[in-house]
Amino acid sequence: MATTQEKTTPCCVHNDTAKSLPPQAPPALLRKPSDDWAVAAPDPSEDPSRKRSAVATMIHSFETVTDSPTTNAASAKGIPIMVRAQTSHPLDPLSAAEISVAVATVRAAGATPEVRDGMRFFEVALVEPDKNVVALADAYFFPPFQPSLLPKTKGGPVIPSKLPPRKARLVVYNKKSNETSIWIVQLSEVHAATRGGHHRGKVVWSKVVPDVQPPMDAVEYAECEAVVKDFPLFREAMKRRGIEDMDLVMVDAWCAGYHSDADAPSRRLAKPLIFCRTESDCPMENGYARPVEGIHILVDMQNMVVIEFEDRKLVPLPPADPLRNYTPGETRGGVDRSDVKPLQIIQPEGPSFRVNGHFVQWQKWNFRIGFTPREGLVIYSVAYIDGSRGRRPVAHRLSFVEMVVPYGDPNEPHYRKNAFDAGEDGLGKNAHSLKKGCDCLGYIKYFDAHLTNFNGGVETIENCVCLHEEDHGILWKHQDWRSGLAEVRRSRRLTVSFICTVANYEYGFFWHFYQDGKIEAEVKLTGVLSLGALQPGETRKYGTTIAPGLYAPVHQHFFVARMDMAVDCKPGEGFNQVVEVNVKIEEPGKNNVHNNAFYAEEELLRSELQAMRDCNTLSARHWIVRNTRNVNRTGQLTGYKLVPGSNCLPLAGSEAKFLRRAAFLKHNLWVTPYARDEMYPGGEFPNQNPRVGEGLATWVKQNRSLEEADIVLWYVFGITHIPRLEDWPVMPVERIGFMLMPHGFFNCSPAVDVPPSAGDVEVKDNGISVKPIQNGLIAKL
Known about the structure:
Mean pLDDT: 86
Number of helices: 10
Family: Belongs to the copper/topaquinone oxidase family.
InterPro entries: Cu_amine_oxidase (IPR000269), Cu_amine_oxidase_C (IPR015798), Cu_amine_oxidase_C_sf (IPR036460), Cu_amine_oxidase_N-reg (IPR016182), Cu_amine_oxidase_N2 (IPR015800), Cu_amine_oxidase_N3 (IPR015802)
Shape: globular
Distance between the termini: 43 Å
Low-confidence stretches: 7-85, 190-197, 758-781
Radius of gyration: 28 Å
Structural class: mainly beta
Region (Disordered): 1-52
Domain Copper amine oxidase catalytic: 343-751
Organism: Carya illinoinensis (Pecan)
């Protein structure tokens, strides 16, 4: 992922004078650096407090790199100078060059030409370093340049001349052997004067993972479609339905899931869904309006052959729905509205945010932007600048790690539609270039994303992540009725987002940062419904009829946010705990003689099994992550609380097949102590996974203590979709999410110092609304 210049789109304003952080010399470069040094990895069983007190752990598992010199001969004044500053923060996404080196290194390590030829590359991602390495980087090498992140030591800190080398983690599938393997490659940037500026890589670890299947890839989807459309029995089946032009046919290669031993990962399988357009010369026709039912197909994706085919039931194709298309105006046989006036968002002085590489500063917030093939957008090192209290951490890492879409129709083929869109496809891999349509207005900073393709090449998604400010209505207001004086402030928020398409659905993932210290996570759902066909005169209670012969099955969407919290904690500290809060009604009696009393009751979640919790709107249930060693001015522990939005649980029986792989959906909240290999709630490889409850549901059986720990929240939130006619032909956005809010974190509202702006006041002139604008003039609306 790489930063790009701010760009002009039809819906954003371009300004070449982008604000960026001024170049600063890290303190590490302003003093004589010590020699490169390394220490052995500490014993995992060692007391965490001892680990924190050891300065050596600031470079955990550091391997000395002698071929990457960082200093040259002394200058004329005898002061060592660095010929090349550290170029990549330890949390920066892999560059295109690093991905290329990692792929080439692994390919070269193949034992035989056959092994090398069979390699397919599903994921190349950064190996995120230990948190103490991040602390070292942020203390002396990169913004925010905060030495206080490191523990104090006798004699002062020992500052190495460089950080550990970056590493890449690769998920590789061998198409010839049907084996999945994981590789770790150390990346070394070699100085131009000594090695011609090339990069090098070294395999430091590899392992074949048995009984798994990696995610599907877009190349495989395209190959599967071609194979199915060329299969003679399929052509005959389509001919019986009146279709002979294969250019009209759409084949969506859905993962097989796991319903029985026949779906075991010993074979790489897909069970495609079939759709058919009506016009071959209309590339934007909504082909999902004509589902083809009654045909069973099983494809061997390793050898790319159809291994099972049965035309089980002749269901007529739905007639062409005249309302099926969603393209503009006359292209869909309709007329667009003509009374929508232009809306321009103008920031004549540029944005209020500043960006240096992937480091972002805005309205006392600062954080880093990352990106992975599986999760897409990742937010790192979230902190708030709180006056004399300085930079206060809130979270180490925020991301959406999984999503599941189970359908509620027990009929073929809908009962097996339960996609794991992150684990089986990859949210990042399916991200959009926002050049093709941006939902942001105003002054925008874009970030590109670099990913590997199936064959190991590097592909760049330009304008993949969007960073911009939004006006968000009133932040706060009060009018004194005695004096008639009023104060009002408008709210502004900083939004970081990306959008991906998985088959028929679009998902927008947003992190909003507010001036009052709140963080909002939001998912926007849109796109096209996945439909079923009906026999003439048939209705089905498991969906909504939206056109003749056409219905939309009921279904649910679930998302899992993984939040590695760090409330007032330096990287690696474990001083957080989680408290559940429920509102209780006071029992009638001497303490409640008026029967109006209620109060908030807190309960400390002491262990993992106790912390498997569900939402409860009747008790206004929420959860607070508190620092056990830091208090506010009233003596209360500082904290951030997770406030649920609308939510649901799976509407399926306990023996539902998809719950074997998605046991994490059984509760809305899970809490675990941080463990670096616990990343994905359904395990790393949910595709055709036969293991029951792998991942989060298994990890918590250890029942580890949470009373004072490095806390990770797993919040599961979802929406139950009962389709409407108004969701056709394209579904208007539905929004779900949650809020992280300061709770005793600040001594008063951090929004009180937000200044009034010229656009805050609106007066009436003879019944016509008029409003001051930034230059002080009055604009009639």
